[in-house]
Specification:
five-stranded antiparallel beta sheet, 31% helix, single chain, alpha+beta, 14 helices
């Protein structure tokens, strides 16, 4: 009896696959895939010399276009129109092994609106570009390259060599292997290693995943008189695995096990379930999503086996749909405890991300390009891991606007701030003597800490220790899974879902787009008001000593001098006791009106009255 460890396991004929053709059988086999190695490529476009415009006597309005595969970036037109234009612009691209892509650099002249003329072209291979591993390495020197004239594009190589004159372009090109090329969001990334092998961290453990089966799946092919042909895909790091497809079943049992090396515990493994639409079907059909699960390794206890049913939730234009449950067995085994604990003090991303950070706008563009490269490469494997599967696993549309996701993030912020508000309400209850016994104990504790200030920090850390020990018995027993309530997916409005699944650019009728635009303006107006209020408070802080209100600033500096003299001659403990007792005074000595400092602060000027 064979096992999954046998070399012939992926090619074994499945017992339930007797009714399909040999061609369709290839789409049912299990497979292990590896994402291509990705590296950022930097291109510094410095200047050009001796450009020759097509029209004699005309000074070119030149710009440079750089293209690698489907990635195209262009410089601005040179500010000084001359035959030797200067740009000094930098671009970043994503390159993949085996680095056989061509770099096509074209210098073009903007003759008129929508009309450009080629002034020269340069073609290089990524394989010939030097590589830099870290920030300490010396940058490769910029080089001058000859530009090929457009008139020579169709001539033979021997004829090209006869050219004694050519325009030149000054470039600095190199592969920046010190970065980690992001192909998924950093919030649930499965790999944080740099591209350079010499900079990668050592393995700290092993992750074992058992894909046992699923239950209560919904029929995805009910129109065809069948149920579901499910298979699983799991991704961690650059390793993708795919289980065999089980035909026409709503309770599949895969019982397949896979392992990965772990280099960082603060990473996420993603497991997705799909319905195979290529069993005696059209090649143009797409595999349907059944659901996926994300599990963060840092939430797992070491050397413990977790066996759990995870709900398979998928969001569709018609609403949230539960397609069944996925049965997984998961175990993280740590082999280097000291190294693992040390990782918690190290940066999450490689050093280059902090020494030479990439802007958020460029990171999003580069992530999209990396996703496209990975999807294209895996879709050419045999059996193919199709583009729709890879894009769903990598959350290719995660950065797109979603009103539902915005509400979910707002609720997350309010949940975080609720802890601060609870502390404020507790302190307000202390100040208002709602529980006299607790208020008296706080008075005693406060006086002790003021008289013995060396006990303040030990008391704080001891309190944190007690809270942690108290919360230990409420710790989660199972790894967290997709939360429909947290995602605000249970009560989402149908129009918000339709907007979330809309294409970019939109394909909806103008009246619907106008309605959504008006709604967006309403939401943006509230955000604008909040940002304006924050700016007003900050400008009032700046106005304290800026003499915008000369009387207010004079009051502040005179009071500052008085307080400075008073604090010099009065012991700090006495001042702290007086301030604390005043803050905790009895309600009969309080008033509902704002305090004097608050009244003074709200009267300070801001720049809001100077806005148009």
């Amino acid at each position: 009896m064979g096992t999954q460890a046998d070399e012939a396991f992926p090619d074994a004929w499945q017992s339930d696959a007797h009714s399909i053709s040999q061609k369709s059988l290839n789409n049912t086999r299990s497979k292990v895939y590896f994402s291509p190695k990705l590296v950022y490529l930097r291109a510094y476009v410095i200047e050009a010399q001796d450009l020759v415009p097509t029209e004699k006597g005309r000074v070119p309005d030149a710009y440079v276009k750089v293209q690698i595969g489907n990635q195209v970036r262009a410089t601005r037109t040179s500010q000084s129109r001359m035959l030797n234009p200067v740009w000094n612009e930098e671009f970043m691209f994503v390159a993949s092994e085996p680095f056989d892509e061509l770099i096509v650099i074209t210098v073009e002249d903007k003759v008129g609106p929508g009309k450009d003329e080629h002034l020269g072209r340069l073609i290089l291979t990524v394989r010939d570009i030097p590589q830099r591993n870290d920030s300490h390495s010396k940058l490769p020197d910029p080089r001058w390259h000859n530009l090929q004239k457009p008139s020579l594009a169709g001539e033979e190589e021997s004829e090209k060599k006869k050219e004694k004159f050519s325009s030149k372009i000054h470039l600095r090109l190199f592969l920046d292997a010190g970065y980690h090329v992001l192909d998924e969001s950093t919030h649930f990334s499965s790999d944080l290693q740099p591209s350079a092998k010499t900079l990668r961290r050592q393995t700290i453990g092993i992750l074992e995943l058992g894909i046992l089966g699923a239950q209560n799946l919904l029929p995805m092919k009910a129109k065809d008189g069948k149920t579901t042909d499910p298979y699983c895909v799991a991704k961690y790091g650059n390793k993708w695995v795919r289980t065999r497809t089980l035909l026409d079943t709503l309770s599949p049992r895969w019982n397949e096990q896979f392992t990965w090396e772990v280099c960082d515990p603060c990473t996420v493994i993603t497991v997705g379930v799909f319905d195979n639409s290529h069993i005696n079907g059209s090649e143009d059909s797409k595999d349907q999503r059944i659901g996926k699960v994300r599990i963060r390794l840092s939430t797992l206890q070491a050397d413990r086996t977790y066996t759990h049913f995870y709900p398979l939730l998928v969001l569709q234009p018609s609403g949230l749909k539960k397609n069944g449950e996925l049965h997984l067995a998961l175990r993280f085994t740590c082999t280097a405890w000291v190294n693992m604990l040390t990782l918690y003090s190290l940066p999450l991303l490689p050093k280059m991300h902090y020494v030479q950070p990439i802007s958020v706008r460029h990171i999003d563009w580069l992530r999209h390009q990396a996703m496209q490269i990975v999807a294209a490469r895996l879709s050419r494997a045999e059996p193919p891991l199709r583009r729709e599967v890879v894009e769903y696993m990598l959350d290719v549309d995660y950065h797109m606007f979603s009103l539902r996701r915005s509400k979910a993030n707002f609720n997350r912020i309010m949940s975080v701030l609720s802890g601060v508000s609870n502390i404020y309400r507790w302190f307000d209850g202390i100040c208002r003597w709602r529980n006299p016994v607790t208020t008296c104990l706080v008075h005693v504790l406060y006086l002790i800490l003021i008289c013995y200030p060396e006990l303040i920090l030990p008391t704080i850390f001891l309190y944190l220790f007690v809270i942690g020990i108290w919360n230990y018995r409420y710790r989660p027993r199972d790894p967290p899974h997709m939360d429909a309530r947290l995602s605000h997916a249970e009560v989402v409005h149908p129009d918000e879902l339709d907007e979330e699944f809309d294409t970019f650019p939109t394909s909806r009728p103008p009246d619907i787009v106008r309605m959504r635009y008006d709604r967006m303006r309403s939401v943006a107006g509230r955000v604008q008001s909040v940002i304006g209020d924050l700016a007003t408070q900050g400008e009032r802080v700046q106005a304290i000593l800026s003499w915008r209100d000369p009387r207010a600033t004079a009051i502040v500096i005179i009071l500052s001098l008085i307080w400075a003299v008073f604090l010099y001659v009065t012991p700090f403990q006495v001042v702290s006791i007086i301030w604390g007792l005043y803050l905790l005074r009895h309600p009969r000595f309080r008033t509902k009106l704002p305090s004097v400092p608050v009244n003074f602060f709200k009267r300070l000027p801001s720049k809001a009255d100077t806005l148009l």
